[in-house]
## 1
Amino acid sequence: MDDDSSSSSQSCERNETVRSRWNPKPEQIVILESIFNSGMVNPRKDETVRIRKMLEQFGAVGDANVFYWFQNRRSRSRRRQRQIQASLSAVSNSNEEQSARSSDGGFITVFINGVAAQVPRGPLDMKAMFGPEDLVLYHSSGVPLPVNEYGFVVQSLQHGESYFLVSSHQPQVAGGRVSNKNMN
């Protein structure tokens, strides 16, 4: 019986020292995402402290939380970039095979996130091309390409032009103000 009471008291003592996981508030995420998207993807120690102080007005946060958030976000970003490039390579390879078989040459070459891709002329089916995720295709001028209710890009892509494929859930930074209309 002594063993049970001593193990339960040790269990209580352990629970008191366990820290709870940091769960950033939406305002903190918007700030962190806007900093990351502005190009600061690996802040130095003094920048981490400055960011933490900014975030503290919305809730408790430590320097380590900020450091690990950026580390995890870089990892997610690299993984996402690899997925997009793999998707584009698969589409490009598939389109090259189809183009070689077809005599009408119904494909054009565009650059998506810096990768050359063969895409069909005419309306582009975003879901068939890039999967079920909510993605937005931007022309290199910064203008998003409109998509109809069926998931097709309304305008045809232009041969040789550059486009950028991004998640529609990323906060948009416009005029120095963060707009997070797509995040729930």
Note: The longest helix spans residues 63-101.
## 2
Amino acid sequence: MHGFARLGQVEEAEAWMLRAESLGLEPTVVSYTSLVDACAKSGQPGSALRFLRQADQKALATSATYQAAIDACAKQGFVSDAEGLFQEMQDAAFSGESFRFARWSDQLLAWDAAATTQSIISSPIKTLIT
């Protein structure tokens, strides 16, 4: 599954995860994060959000899962969705985890969202930065 995800082949990766589930294996944090990242690589923010929500429902979402979903949205110009996910991630305050803002800040800037990027940069996110 992870091999397909690394290549951005979302449908194939999801098929392998479903196959594993049919055999009684439970998806992990890594499984969902890989799927969300595959969506970012292949330009599928809607699928990224779907997998993020599934991970959330199973208490398997981490800051890395959110970062991949933010990346998926930002790369396609869905700035308000990226902002909303950032706020959700901030509210969740994943303890002990770091957030790499630079991964998607360039995408927001590319979509002419400099003011948004500046407001996020200046927001208090000390608990998320190591």
Note: The first helix runs from residue 2 to 6.
## 3
Amino acid sequence: MLNCSVKQIIQVEKVRESNKCKEVASLEIEQKLKRHLGKLVCDRNICPLGVSSWHDITQEKLNHMWAAIEHKFESVDMNDRRDHILGCMNELWNK
């Protein structure tokens, strides 16, 4: 007969992976923005897939992408940086 109890057999050490939320929370605002822009560019519901060039994306779609950015990030001078942020999205889209 084995000399171990049922509790010892059932008890298994649970190992958890690192917490991604803590990693994201510790990022700087620029890193969070770039991460969010990358997600938007890859989302086919927000950024169209059927275009061959960033310049072929309609103004309506660009406004939709911009609204998604404004919804996530609040800043006083956000509209002043619109062209720069959309330029970053263009770079991410081309990768």
Note: Residues 4-12 have pLDDT under 50 and may be disordered.
## 4
Amino acid sequence: MDFRSHSLHQTIVATHLILAVDDDDDNLLLLTQALARADRSFLAAPDGKTTLTLAQTRQPNLILLDIRLPDLSGFDVLHHLRRNVITAKIPVIAVTALTREDDHRKLLQAGCSDCVTKPYLLEDLERAVDRCLSALALSYPSDSDFGSTKVFGAAVV
């Protein structure tokens, strides 16, 4: 790994907030332990309504979303996220037991950036997170590109 990509990786790890969502306590614990092991900052949510509230108020950089939730399906959560101007561009990785290729296609069409199938290898989850956060880091210009103007999402303040 060259110095620039290593620095980018350190910046990504240090500055991004990830929202992990799963209604199963064991699965949520596994997700959060994997994030902690990778020195990621994270929040956890056990259901769709909490996910939507945290996405709106905390504006995470990435959401790891279980699709089978007790109150709202992951598809419903995606629909609400994409219709809200504040949360519309937050990347979402589906972490799901749905294994059919057609299910993954539907998740990508619904607005997921990637899919990780349960049970998963921690390395596969980490690679998916790294891909999304790296793409996010490359898609936003740095503050130096705008002098003293700060850019947050699509709004210039």
Note: Strands lie at 17-21, 41-45, 62-65, 92-96, 114-117, 151-152, 155-156.
